[in-house]
Every structure is written in C-alpha cells, then in structure tokens.
Fold:
Amino acid sequence: MKSTTENLSPTRVKLTIEVPFDEFKPALDKAYKSIGSQIQVPGFRRGKVPSAVVDQRVGRGVVLDEAINAALPDWYREALQETDLQPLGQPEIDLTKFSDGEDIEITAELDVRPEVELPDLTSVEVEVAAIEVADSDVDEQLEALRERFATYTAVERAAAKGDQVTLGLAAAHKDGTVIEDATAEDLPYRVGGAEMLDGLDDAVTGLEPGGTATFATTLVGGELKDSEVDVTVTVTEVKQTELPELDEEFVQMASEFDTLEELRADLLERITRGKRMEQAAEARDLVLDELLSKVEVPLPEALVAEELAARRQQIEQQLAYSGVAFEQYLDDQEQTADEFEAELEKSVHDSIVSQFILDQIVKTDEIGLDDNELTQHIMRRAQQSGEDPNSYIQHIMEHNHVPEMVSEVLRGKALASLVEGAKVKDSAGADVDLASLQADGSLKSESDAAEDEASDQD
Structure:
C-alpha cells in the first residue's frame, strides 16, 4: 500500500491511497467466507461454499463491495499512521479507481491539525496583581470561624443587625394583586446580610416577633425581573447571635492549635497560599492571552461550526434545566443576541487555538506523563463530578474518554511549562517565581528544588 498527500489548504489535506490488488485478496477471501456462511447450497456445508458457486449465487460484484467496505477503514488508519496526519473530524472518502483484478485507488479529503509556529516563549511578559495580606484578612477569617461556632437564643425584643430571624414574605403588584410565586414561609435570615431583597434589612430592623412591615423593592430574578413590587414581611422569631470569646479555650476547641498566635499564623499562611494560587491562575490566563495575540492559527470551518453548535446546545440545556428563557438569560447578562453570538464565537476560537498551541508545545518539548499523573487527574475529575471514583473510572473506560483525559493532563503540563518560561512580574515590580509554586499554594524550599533537579537528571 502506498499513501501520498496534497495540501488543499493549511487545514485540509487530500490523502491518496494506492493498494495493489494482491493486497486486497485477503479481504476478498474473508468476504467469500462470510457470504458463503450465509447461503445454503445443496451439496455444500454452510461456510464451505466454493468461491465460484458464491459468484453464481450472489454475483462477484456483491463480494467485491463487501470486501472493499471491510478493508477501507483499515487502509485509512494505516495511511494516517504512514503520513503522520492528525485528522479533525470525519473524512470524505471516494473510491476513485476500483476494477476487478486491478490496483485500487482511494482518495480522502480531511481536516487536519494545523502546524503552529510558536514565538520565542521567553519574550512573553505579563503583569499580575501583587499579593497583599492584611491583618484585616486574618480578622475576617477569625470572625467567620467564630460564626461557625455561634449559638442562637430566642429573645422577645426587636430585631437588630446580626440577629437570626425567621420570616414570612409576600409580594404584590402595585395594584395589590398578590404574586403567588413570590411568597415564602419560615424563611431563615440574618439581619444585615443584604443577601435577599433590597430594603429587607431596613424593614426587618426594629420589628418584634409577630411584627409586620411593607416595603417597596425591585425583583432581581425570575419572570418578573425588574418589576416594582410591594413586599410584606412578617417576623415570627428573633434569635440573638452569641459568638464565643476569641481566647485560647476557643482556639483549642475550634482548631488543632493551642494559642491564638499559632492560629493567626496558620490563617495567614492559608490566605497567602490562596492568593498565590489566584496569582498563578491570573498569570496563566494572561500568558495564554498574550500568546493568542502573537500567534495566527488557521482553523477548519467544520471544526469551529461543530464546537459552536455543541456550546449552544450546552447553554440551551442548562437554561432549560434552570427554567430560564434565552431572552431572560440575555437580559441577565445585559447582552443582545448579536453580542452573545460574537462572544461565543470568540470563546470557541480562542479555546480551539489554545488547544492547538498547547498541543504544539507538548510535541515540541516532548512532554510526557506517567500513570500516577493520569490517575491523580482522573481522581480529581471524579471528585469534582461528585461521583463514586470507581463508577467514574468505569464510565470513562466504557466511553473511551481516557485519550481525552491524557490530553487534559498534557495540556496542563504544557501550560505550566509555558507560564514558568514567561516573564511574570507583579504590580509592585517584583519577579513572580511560579516554578516554585506547589499544588497547595506553598513554595518549594531550596532543598526540595535540588531534589527535583536531581530526579530530573536521573
């Protein structure tokens, strides 16, 4: 078998496959055997019918058609390996030459992965926000920890900021018509939370159990979004929030530490780690955006159209599941249909180009992965999905999602390599060393870095 290629465009190739008739004979023999096992001929056992008799009964053309249909997929796969083509989508295959006893010729037109010319990656420079951790950040975490251990005591007094109250709500149009879908009973609410309706905190503050107040507000969601309504709120219970004292007894109860200083130091480290991870995520996005602006990658129209259709369908399904009309979604996003479509097309374009860039880095840098990296990635995906790990693994094996998982890991490593090779500074002008950043937001020590370097050399 011989394979040749002709570039029709930067993303489309014509593949020509030439097969000598002698190489076709095994497929032809298999077709004769298959058809012979399906017909009954007096004097011959099923499956033992001679070829000449099969030709008499069903015709030579039927056998040739079955043989060529069975052989084509294998020839196509072999030709892809021989020419090192990476197809995107299904090919358009044409049997251009096929006569009994003569050499066979097949042509296939297919979209292929374009070659990406990467710029000097060390020329990529981005600036990220500097890490700033203030005492107030630690105080906020301490306050949240105290609130987790808060106790609530029912009181017979007016509700005040910080109290936990139980509410009843009923909304009505300006003409007094009650809105059935905008009522609620026994609703817990923290006064001062400002998490529900504009004006609710002011209306509740000062009401004793059994007290009622009506206030005007604007609905922020649902079919009546932006409607001006009157809401009547009834307080059925007021509970005073009592926070534990921030002393060593509380620290020992709520954490593994003995002193407040130790707890504050741990919270400071946790916050710092979190901000490092945020900074790294910002750097990844900025580096990839910078690279997208420097690289021109032609995209197959069919691939873009397919991905656009898939994204639209996903959004439609999510909206249908949430019971939100598309027009309502556009209103919530403050977008027109044209703006939504333009944003979606840009998102799809950037996503595909990003994949091609990262795949090129994987190929150029010969990035690989081991079984442990793949296993950890699959376990993280299972955890994110909320599924049982064994069930999740069985699902991806049955639906052949392992290659997709491999690509995700390799692209992640390529992106990490890309970011580590770029020049990243923070807004204060300091260099940001992302190569030392570990998965939990901590930094590698010099001894850890030396061990990693020695391991790489081994």
Q: What stands out?
A: The domain at 2-111 is CATH 3.30.70.1050 (Alpha-Beta Plaits). The chain has three domains: 2-111, 151-242, 260-453. The longest helix spans residues 260-294.
